Amino acid sequence: MSILFYFLVIVPSAIIHEYAHGLMADRLGDPTARYAGRLTLNPKAHIDLWGTLVMPILLSVLSAGKFLFAYAKPVPYNPYNLKNQKWGPALVALAGPLSNFSLALAFSLLIRFLPVTNLTQYLYVIVYANVLLMVFNLVPIPPLDGSKILYAVLPPGNEKFINLLEKNSFIILLVFVLFLFDLIFPIINFIVNLLVGF
Predict the structure, then answer these.
(1) Residues 145, 96 contacting (CB under 8 angstroms)
(2) Number of other residues whose CB lies within 10 A of the CB of residue 175
(3) pLDDT, tens digit only, all 198 positions of the chain
(4) From the candidates 18, 26, 30, 145, which is the catalytic residue?
(5) Do 25 and 77 touch, CB atoms closer than 8 A?
(6) Which of 25, 115, 125, 128 has its CA 20 to 30 A from that of 163?
(7) Active site includes 166?
(8) Dihedral sign, Cα of residue 37, residue 38, residue 40, residue 46
(9) 132: nearest Cα among 90, 179, 188, 78
């Protein structure tokens, strides 16, 4: 499973993830991404120098090829333009992980129905990369998508908790990535195995 291939998979997957955010926001009443020229699958509109190019290479080198992660430039949107103020932001947030799940599902079906060849391992990488993006982004730590979903389901009166989470989001996310990231691998592996059937 080539690291180069993995890199070529996870970057387009991250771009589709961001495009899905913009598309959902547009459908729900906010044209910000469209006006900013970000409602497109053109990589030039989404590539972030650090998150899409530098960070993945550094992670690959530092982990000796065992770990690679990338993200695209976040698509801008104005939550105040959304028709539904309570659930709108959560739906926009959920659109990204759902796009990754859709990609993982599509390629897992190919694995199930095509004969096992050398192509199978590359298809498996596509499935794994997209499940990784989906699960990681659903972690309820700002600015990850899971935080917006968390805010929507929290009962009223949790503004202090939300403000505390937002103010310390960088530290909390850094601690998670450095020390707790392994906790999501069993979830990732379970979903991948469920999709591909082995």
Answers:
(1) yes
(2) 13
(3) 566 776 788 889 989 999 999 999 999 999 999 999 999 999 889 988 888 878 777 877 776 666 667 788 999 999 999 999 999 999 999 999 999 999 999 999 999 998 888 889 889 989 998 999 999 999 999 999 999 999 999 988 888 999 999 999 999 988 998 888 889 999 999 999 999 987
(4) 18
(5) yes
(6) 25
(7) no
(8) positive
(9) 188
